[in-house]
Design goal:
Rossmann fold, binds magnesium ion, rod-shaped, 3 domains, alpha/beta, binds guanosine-5'-diphosphate, single chain
């Protein structure tokens, strides 16, 4: 096959594979959309429901739903991070991406320029490259994107120092050729941090990696380390041993100057280099690369020289035809699979990852909802224990309160009025109910304050000293003034003397007995009033509390759960049917 035929077949294959890559079009957008819908509906669901004017209710709902919202937002953030980690591949979905990787000065950019075809075009050689516009190079440097005519190559001066090292050694440069994207990464270790990260991203997400190593200095520790990494990551890669040419001085011109002629390295040299490389790779456990196919010794310079001179033997010696042939082969036979399998698998595993996060969230919701159900039951259907506890506590407090007050009265203190007792006891009941509810829901006291009016206790009377009066009749003697009797007495009376008579009579005497404070009477009235509260009002309050606090939270939970379910269904639908092939 002539050089032109080989080049034409290569270019035509690249141009023809364009339409193969539509399959995963839009996956990232769809995924992003799906996550956004999820996030929006979570915001909607966890929005405090209705504009409740009831004091505190909004706050309690807020504090209850806040945890959920926080958790779900976390979920969405994790989902998005997972999506972003795969968005890179899908942003390169429309092409078969070949990343060129290897140390500085391996000849990566030089070979890339050959593949881009502009150098061939510029020689005036007609090929299939003429079917398309001159490809342009996109240069990415620390996030800035510029355009250029060709891949910047390293130019060394005669002392071997690199001239203008910047562009050629640190930027990422890429171009498209039909359905193929060629990504020229800067040399390993020579890059700025930002570019290195990006270069690594490109390498990580490429469909095929072409690792180039200068055949003069191939097989350094660094090379083997990188190749081992690619192998361990199960990446599809080729190894090119580049610049396999040498200068031969074989002729003299008319003036007797020697003519330097570019020639392939000797077969012997090439073979021994390949032997060494293959052995070393085998030792590293890299056995999948076929020599002469995936391990190739090439000289791009020789290939260009061959084109210039229309030298078929030199073209054959350059091995560029073999390199083009393997690219054709992979593009025709593997790129569809690589293209769909690699990103497809990554998208699917990102989706699986997101589904896992969502299922985790569902578990959390279920646990939360289980806890809520328990609280709810404690407040409603199974409220006997809670009621008994509360009642016990109320009774205990009231009893000791009344006993204390009674003692005071007993000791001569003022009696306590019924209204005072009612007020104080009602407060005790209210506090007991509150503290029990507070254990169930932080902040529930705010709601309960509106119920304080309905928790009224009737004592039925003052707390005072009870007395009784006992009366009995007693006979008593008494004296009374009488009129003077007879002349003498009258005379004496005239001068002021008083005369008395005596008699007996029955007198009724009453005695007051202190019977003690009317504690039993007050307590029994309070107890029946308390019983009443615990039969009707308090269970009612617990039920309302459960309703007002739990229902909205449950609505949020149910909403979130069904949102998660529908998101999972949507995500499953976004998975890409990965062809079941080798690799
Ligand atoms: N002799 C010879 N020199 C080459 C060949 N390929 C590239 N070079 C030279 O090697 C130097 C580095 O090439 P470049 O492509 O910039 O290396 P990169 O750092 O791997 O991109 C340049 O001066 C090229 O001219 C080749 O096949 N043969
Ligand atoms: Mg370069």
């Amino acid at each position: 096959m002539t050089a032109i035929e080989a080049i034409n077949e290569f270019v035509d294959t690249m141009l023809g594979c364009r339409d193969m890559f539509d399959k995963i079009e839009g996956s990232d957008e769809k995924l992003a959309q799906c996550i956004k819908v999820f996030l929006d509906s979570i915001a909607e669901i966890t929005k405090t429901s209705r504009s409740d004017d009831k004091t505190g209710l909004k706050e309690i709902q807020e504090s209850q739903t806040q945890t959920l919202r926080k958790m779900l937002e976390d979920v969405a953030a994790k989902m998005d991070a997972t999506r972003k980690s795969m968005s890179f591949i899908s942003s390169n979905k429309e092409s078969f991406n070949i990343a060129v990787f290897g140390k500085v000065k391996a000849g990566k950019s030089y070979t890339g320029n050959f593949i881009m075809g502009n150098v061939i075009r510029d020689m005036g050689i007609q090929t299939s490259y003429d079917k398309i516009e001159r490809p342009k190079v996109t240069v990415i440097d620390k996030g800035k994107i510029t355009s250029s005519e060709k891949l910047a190559e390293i130019e060394s001066n005669k002392d071997g120092f690199i001239v203008d090292p910047n562009e050629a050694t640190s930027t990422i440069q890429l171009f498209n050729l039909g359905g193929m994207k060629w990504i020229d990464t800067p040399g390993i270790g020579s890059v700025t941090w930002e570019n290195e990260i990006l270069a690594q991203d490109f390498v990580d997400s490429a469909d095929l990696i072409v690792y180039m190593s200068n055949s003069d200095a191939a097989g350094t520790q660094q090379d083997f380390k990188e190749l081992k990494t690619l192998h361990d990551k199960k990446r599809r890669f080729l190894l090119l041993l580049t610049q396999s040419d040498t200068i031969e001085e074989e002729d003299c011109d008319d003036e007797g100057n020697t003519i330097a002629k570019l020639a392939p390295k000797s077969d012997e040299d090439r073979r021994s280099m390949e032997d060494y490389i293959c052995e070393s790779l085998h030792e590293l456990g890299i056995t999948e690369l076929k020599r002469g196919y995936e391990i190739l010794t090439i000289s791009t310079k020789l290939a260009l020289e061959a084109l210039k001179n229309n030298d078929q033997a030199m073209w054959d010696a350059s091995n560029l035809d073999k390199f083009l042939a393997i690219l054709i082969d992979i593009t025709k036979n593997e790129s569809r699979d690589l293209k769909i399998i690699t990103p497809g698998k990554r998208i699917n595993s990102a989706i699986d990852e997101i589904i896992k996060i969502l299922n985790g969230a569902k578990d959390t919701l279920n646990k939360h909802s289980q806890g809520l159900r328990e609280v709810e039951e404690k407040l409603t259907d199974n409220n006997e224990t809670l009621l008994a506890e509360m009642k016990n506590e109320c009774y205990g407090k009231i009893d000791s309160f009344i006993t204390k007050k009674a003692q005071e009265v007993e000791n001569g203190g003022a009696s306590v009025s019924a209204s005072d007792i009612n007020r104080l006891i009602s407060a005790e009941v209210y506090n007991s109910v509150m503290s029990a509810c507070k254990d169930a829901f932080a902040g529930s006291e705010k709601i309960l304050s509106s119920y304080s009016e309905s928790l009224k206790i009737q004592s039925g009377g003052d707390l005072s000293m009870k007395t009784d009066t006992i009366s009995h009749t007693r006979r008593e003697a008494y004296s009374y003034e009488r009129d003077p009797d007879g002349f003498i007495e009258n005379v004496r009376a005239f001068f002021g003397k008083k005369y008395y008579g005596s008699s007996v009579r029955d007198v009724t005497v009453t005695t007051e007995i202190k019977l003690g404070v009317n504690i039993a009477q007050v307590m029994s009235s309070i107890t029946s009033s308390l019983d009443e509260l615990f039969i009707t009002q308090i269970p009612e309050i617990l039920k309302r509390l459960a309703d007002e606090i739990i229902s909205p939270v449950r609505r949020v939970q149910e909403g979130a759960k069904s949102q998660i379910d529908s998101t999972i269904t949507k995500l499953e639908g976004l998975k890409i049917a990965v062809p079941n092939t080798k690799g």
